[in-house]
Amino acid sequence: MGSKRVTLADVARAAGVSPSTASLVMTGRGRELRISEAVHDRVRAAAEDLGYRPNAVSIGLRKGTTRTIGFVSDSVASSRLAGDMIKGAIEAARERGFMLFIGETGGKPAEEAKLVEAMLDHQADGIVLASMFTRSRPLPPDIDRIPAVLLNLTAPGNTTIPSVLPDEERAGREAAELLLAAGHREIHLIGAGPGLDDWPAVAIAARERLRGILGAFDDAGVRPASGHEDPSWLPQQGWEAARRILTSAGPAPLALLCFNDRLAFGAYQAVQETGRSIPDDVSVVSFDDASVAGWLRPGLTTFALPHRALGRRAVELLLEQVGAGADRAGLEPDQLVHQLPMPLRSRESVAPPR
User: Fold this and answer.
1) Angle between helices 261-273 and 235-248 (to 10 degrees)
2) 3-class SS of residue 191
3) Is Repressor there in the keyword field (predicted)?
4) Of the candidates 229, 208, 302, the residue with the CA atom closest to the CA atom of residue 261
5) Which of 106, 151, 225, 261 makes an SS bond possible with 290, Cβ 3.0 to 4.6 Å?
6) What CATH code is assigned to 8-54?
7) Contact 300, 261 (CB under 8 A)
8) Distance from first CA to last CA of the chain, Å, rounded?
9) β-bridge partners, 258
């Protein structure tokens, strides 16, 4: 069995004072009530000698805070791809003296509602509601009862809850500009059709990446050579689309703009199977920066999802609300959506057409 927990009464006995005096000293209120320095010294020395640790929850409740944050997600915690969101959130919370309580719903609305209710019952100071994939969906009914931030998530209609998102449109534009600057004009899209109407509003990543790509194409007076839509974005679909493109195209160099790395992995295999090479014959650009992207040969040029930075920023915004007691209804529209850039991981999969 472990050793007995040291209580405030134990500290009071060792210091020769009453429990109420020991409590006032340990909570920092002793000087307000003119308790002498000698008593302060005795109480603190006794607490240190005994290894006393104050009950952070009870102190927090007296101060109107529990120093805890709820982090509720669909599958972020169990995802190797998005798990850095948790790391960033934990770092930001720990630096400010807060603990993170993490719950996962498996994407089930009923489980999400239960977890939010549990966080409220445990008097968490605020909640981060997170999604593994950037998307829009309805929120649980009680989420607005305490400070909250949406992470990788938005809600349809008007909401006063701030959201933290990757800047997908900017990344899409920069991906297209990268290929255009290399001299490519025959650029095929794998993972999306050539029009914004091909994607529902809830598919934020796809729509915003495509919006940025088409914007860059319009500025350059270029149209996509083809578009191959598939909402699953898996390697098999990337392989199938790339084979169709490569078997119907002529020998001239071309570029594949893949909407995520898994599609690009399949495209790599198709390029190899059709006797071409990357980047001499085919340039490839993608999004996400999955762990395998840097291990491919040649390395895959891709725009990284800044998971760690997203998690950190969500907690920072949440604690700004907690500290200020902010009225979210007073927030301006530009204070509600916080977009973080997707950094370019420049590797060896892009070259000018020969």
Assistant:
1) 40
2) strand
3) yes
4) 302
5) 261
6) 1.10.260.40
7) yes
8) 73
9) 190
Instruction: Round to whole Å and give the CA distance between 21 and 317.
Output: 38
* Topology (CATH level 3) of domain 68-164+307-335: Rossmann fold (3.40.50)
The pair of three-digit structure tokens given for residue 315, joined into one six-digit string:
């907690």
Query: Does the pLDDT of residue 201 top 70, yes or no?
Result: no
CA distance 324 to 85: 24
Which tokens hold the place of 238? 């990337």
| Structural fold of domain 168-305 | Rossmann fold (3.40.50)
- Between strands 99-104 and 254-258, the pairing is unpaired
Helix axes 204-220, 168-181, angle to 10 degrees: 40
Distance CA 261, CA 293 (A): 7
> CA-CA distance, 220 to 7, in Å (whole number)?
72
Listed in sequence order, the DSSP H helices in 27-166 are 37-50, 56-62, 84-95, 109-121
Statement: residue 325 has pLDDT above 50: yes
pLDDT per position as a tens digit, 19-51: 888 888 876 666 667 788 888 889 989 988 888
Q: Which of 151, 215, 234, 223 is nearest to 194 (CA)?
A: 223
For 58-102, write each residue's pLDDT tens digit: 555 555 678 899 999 987 666 666 678 999 999 999 888 899 999
The Cβ of residue 159 has, within 10 Å, a number of other Cβ atoms equal to 16
- Kindly state the helix (H) or strand (E) to which residue 226 belongs, with its residue range: strand 226-229
pLDDT of residue 1: 41
